[in-house]
Every structure is written in C-alpha cells, then in structure tokens.
Design a protein that fits this description.
The chain is an alpha/beta fold. The protein is built from 17 helices and 23 strands. The chain binds flavin-adenine dinucleotide and iron/sulfur cluster (2 copies). Keywords: FAD, Flavoprotein, Iron, Iron-sulfur, Metal-binding, NADP, Oxidoreductase.
Length: about 500
C-alpha cells in the first residue's frame, strides 16, 4: 500500500521535508514545481509511514485504501505522475540527497529585534510572519481591515472545501505567538506604519474583480465573483440579498473561482447544510430551488476553446465526479470536437458533448461549458434577463463575472496599473525603502495558498538582508506607541 495526495493539496510542500524516502514530487527545487497544481506520492517508493499526512495542513494525504467517493481516483492520479519517469530516477535513495549546506536569512547575533508590521492576515501575510518569527527575533504586528483574520482562506475558499479551510488553524497558532500582536478591523496606511516600525510588509491581496467591459454589466443581477464568494462565505461587507440565485446562472470565466461558484450553486442544499456556508446563502439556495421548481443550471462561458480552460485539474476532477450534476460541453462550434479530442483537452474530454438549445428551459441540475463565447452584452429591463454571445441569447437570471482579480493601489505606494500589482524587486517596494510586498499584491492574482510560502520566503529574505546591511530607514517613533499608528 501507499499514501496518495488528493484534491485539497495547495502545494505548500510541507510534506516534502517530512518524507523519509523522498518520494513526494515535484519538490520545490524541481522544474515542475512552479507549474504544478498539486504534489504526488510515488507509490513505488512510499513506505507507508504516514509522516506526510501528519505534516499536511489541509488533510490532503490519505492511505490509498481509504480513498473513497470523490477521492477514489487519486491513487491513479498520483501513480500516473510517475508513469514516464523511470524507476531509477523516481525511486530515490532511502534518504534525501544532501546538497551544499544552505542557511536561511537571519539577523546578526546580538542585533536589536526588528519591529515589523505585516498588513494582511491572508496566506501571504501569515507565511511572511512565520518566516520573520522563525529566522529572526522580530516582533510582528499583524494588521487586517477585517475583524476576522484569514483573508481568502476565511472569505474565499469554498465552504464545501473544509480540508482547505483547515489551513486557517495552522495560521491561527501564530496569532498567539508571544512576539505577535494582532490589530484587526483597522485600515493600514504606509507613512503612519513606517514611522513606528522598522519595516512594513504589505500582504493586502488582490481584491478588485476585473470587469467585462460590455453593455449591461451594471444591471441588477450582474455581479462579480468576489460578491458571490463573499455572499456564500458570510463576508460582513456583502449584504445577505446581494445575490439572488436563479434557475439559470451564467458565469463568465472558466478558472477555479468560476468552478467553485458553479459547484456551490448546483450543489444539493442538504449537502451544503453541514458546511460553514453562510446561513442566508443556504436559505436562498433552498428557497430558490423550491421556487423555480428545478435545480439550478450553471453555464460557464469561455472566450476561447476547451484547451484554454483556466481551472486546475483537481477542481475539474471534482466537478466532473459528481454523479448528480452532469457536466456538458455545448457542441455549438466545429472547433470544439477537435479540441476535445486533441492532446491539450485535459479532463473535459470525458464530459458529455451535445448542442444545447438555449430557447428551452434549463435542464438542470447541470453545468454547461460553452466555449468560443465571449459575452457581447447583458440584456434586461431593470434586471438581467439574458446574455448575448456569438449570435445567441442565453436566458439567465444571474450573471457572474469571474474573469480574474487585480490588486488595488495602496495610498502612498507606487502601483503598476496595467498589472494591478505594487512594483517590487524581490519583494522590496520600488522607491520605498523599508516597505515590502508579498502574495497576490506582489505577483498578481494567481497561484494557490502554497505559492505564497515561497513568495514570503523571498520577501522576508530581502527584508532581513536589508536589516543586516543597515539599509532599513530609521523609524521616527518608538514601537511602544504603535497604537496610534493604525486607525479604525
Ligand atoms: C474565491 C477564491 C477561492 C480560492 N480557493 C483556493 C483554494 O481552495 N485553495 C488554494 O490553494 N487557493 C485558493 N485560492 C487562492 C488563495 O486564496 C490565494 O493564493 C491567497 O489567498 C492569496 O493570499 P494573500 O495573502 O496575498 O491575499 P488575501 O488572502 O486576499 O489576504 C489579503 C488580506 O489583506 C487584508 N487587507 C487588504 N487591504 C488592507 C488594508 N489596507 N489594511 C488592512 N488590511 C488589508 C484583507 O482584509 C485580507 O485579509 C482562492 C482564491 C479565491 C479568490
Ligand atoms: S507515507 Fe511516508 S514514505 Fe509514503 S509519501 Fe508519506 S512520508 Fe513518504
Ligand atoms: S498541501 Fe502541502 S503538505 Fe499537503 S499534500 Fe499538498 S504539498 Fe503536501
């Protein structure tokens, strides 16, 4: 037997160092690591010790004999990663090969502790705080505008992904660290913070949704993905009536967030009842299904063909694996069949293909992918009624734009408006000594939770190097008076 890594893996690589036989790949120093959605256990080398399962913060690793239901296929998924890797290459020596010693960043012995403000308590802020606490005697002030910490782990990750949300527990250990203090419900400002801290790390995420730029986008019933996700996760600034589920919902986009929304809106409300879904969302999903008489149909519009689907394999595998909710590709365009039969089609080649008659009522519950179909406009009088795309009107009561996120400017810091990020050099904010960036506001809105770990290591490395080299600006006020540095 062996262990296998499953759907909730966020590729943070915690298990790699735990494995005594080096049979989890790709490792962070292997080329595939930057592009992989998840890591894989080599069943030929696994000695079944379970160390990886203990190390995993999101409960993604299980013995293969216990993989049932939606996780059943993951033994094969793990093994398949090693198919084209010869045994001699993949079955490693019993212990890791030791490279030259490498010493992480740190502060010189005897140096005064740094006082660092970390703005944002999402994954990037928490990984940055952890790096600072591990590698230096720094004192860390964690600041967030929300009263509840966690960023997108709390208000983004779907409620039916409880294993992924569990990473919040490992971050929460740091909230009580003796060198950490928490300031929640406050909006941070650069000059005030830098006056009282040696350095400020901005981990403010990318909270603005990209727009479609089509007429009708502003109609009631047309919302962005951020609103829907905040609605079903109970984010305090999203009103309970911000989203009205309809019997047909059009989601523009085919990325992971679009898939999350399709999955939650088509789920049986009884299955969602045991999750942390916001009570008002559950009530609306139940009553919407009862009112319309049919379960919801969600249509995902992709601008290009099936080979360009942005969602990761684990998300698609989960969507395709639900017996009660079929997934259909609308076979409306002669380019679709060759794409689905071609090498780049991925998992969608297993979905049913049929031309969809959009004049008929929704056949839900189901999820329909419609490719080569950028929306031309959203129509309706006083409320969304349909979406016009390549010559067809798709009737819909709710339209969700899920075409990506971008960062918002932080007053007083430079901003790259084209990319929606704060410009930086290895995490150092351009032209603002003592200010650093990490996470989605640094890299742009892509990558799962684990990607922020490496990103934080780079940023904190730069910060500690600057501290050791005397490149941090002198702060103007003592740390003890920090309370006035942030405003509610
Ligand atoms: C809907 C959705 C679902 C996702 N699901 C998954 C998943 O299942 N698995 C996975 O691996 N990845 C998932 N991701 C990706 C993952 O959430 C991101 O990689 C990660 O959250 C980015 O971390 P961050 O810390 O940069 O940003 P965020 O998590 O957005 O954190 C930013 C924090 O900064 C705070 N903030 C912003 N501005 C200020 C200010 N001026 N003052 C004080 N505080 C401020 C915010 O309140 C927030 O708490 C998902 C992303 C989205 C959008
Ligand atoms: S069970 Fe043990 S040997 Fe197998 S992958 Fe996990 S840590 Fe490695
Ligand atoms: S989430 Fe991290 S620890 Fe868990 S399986 Fe994935 S890479 Fe390993």
């Amino acid at each position: 037997m062996a262990f296998a890594i499953t759907q909730s893996c966020c590729a943070d690589a915690s298990c790699v160092a735990a494995c005594p036989v080096n049979c989890i790949h790709p490792t962070p120093d292997e080329p595939d690591f930057t592009s992989t959605d998840m890591l894989f256990v080599d069943p030929r080398a696994c000695i079944d010790c379970g160390a990886c399962a203990d190390a995993c913060p999101v409960d993604a690793v299980h013995p293969v004999e216990r993989l049932t239901g939606p996780l059943a296929g993951y033994a094969e998924v793990n093994a398949a990663y090693y198919d084209d890797r010869p045994v001699a290459e993949s079955v490693s020596p019993l212990f890791h090969e030791w490279g030259p010693p490498s010493f992480g960043p740190g502060t010189p012995a005897g140096a005064e502790p740094l006082d660092v403000a970390v703005v944002g308590t999402g994954p990037a802020g928490m990984y940055a705080a952890r790096e600072l606490l591990l590698h230096s005697p720094s004192r860390v002030t964690l600041i967030d505008r929300m009263a509840t910490p966690g960023g997108l782990v709390r208000y983004g990750v779907a409620p039916d992904h409880p294993a992924t949300r569990r990473i919040a527990e490992s971050f929460a250990h740091m909230h009580a660290h003796p060198r950490v203090r928490m300031r929640l419900g406050v909006e941070a400002r650069p000059d005030e913070l830098s006056a009282r801290h040696d350095a400020v790390v901005w981990a403010v995420g990318a909270s603005a949704s990209r727009e479609l730029g089509v007429p009708g986008e502003e109609l009631p019933g047309s919302v962005d993905a951020d609103t829907v996700v905040g609605w079903y996760n109970g984010r305090p600034d999203v009103p309970a009536d911000a989203v009205e589920p309809a019997s047909r919902v059009v989601v523009v986009g085919t990325g992971n967030v679009a898939i999350d929304i399709a999955r939650v809106l088509t789920a049986d409300p009884d299955d969602l009842a045991g999750t942390p879904i916001a009570p008002h969302a559950l009530v609306a999903l139940r009553s919407g299904a009862a009112r319309s008489g049919v379960p919801r149909e969600v249509v995902l519009l992709g601008r290009r063909g099936p080979e360009t689907v942005a969602a990761t394999a684990p998300e698609l595998r989960e969507l395709l694996g639900r017996a009660a909710v079929p997934v259909v590709v609308d076979d409306h365009d002669p380019r679709i069949a060759p794409s689905l039969d071609g090498p780049g089609a991925g998992l969608l080649r297993d979905a049913a293909r049929t031309p969809v008659d959009w004049s008929a009522p929704p056949a839900g519950p189901r999820v329909v992918f419609r490719f080569h179909s950028a929306p031309d406009r959203i129509d309706g009088v006083g409320r969304v009624r349909s979406v016009r795309t390549v010559g067809v009107d798709i009737p819909a009561g709710l339209v969700v734009r899920a075409v990506g996120h971008r960062g918002r400017p932080v007053p007083g810091l430079p901003f790259d408006d084209a990319r929606g990020v704060i410009p930086h050099d290895a995490g150092r904010v351009a032209g603002r000594p003592g200010h650093y960036v990490v996470g989605w506001i640094k890299r742009g809105a892509s990558g799962g939770i684990g990607a922020n770990r490496r990103c934080a290591a780079e940023t904190v490395g730069s910060l500690l190097d600057d501290a050791a080299a005397g490149r941090l600006p002198a702060r103007r006020r003592p740390w003890s008076r920090w309370r006035t540095a942030v405003r509610g």
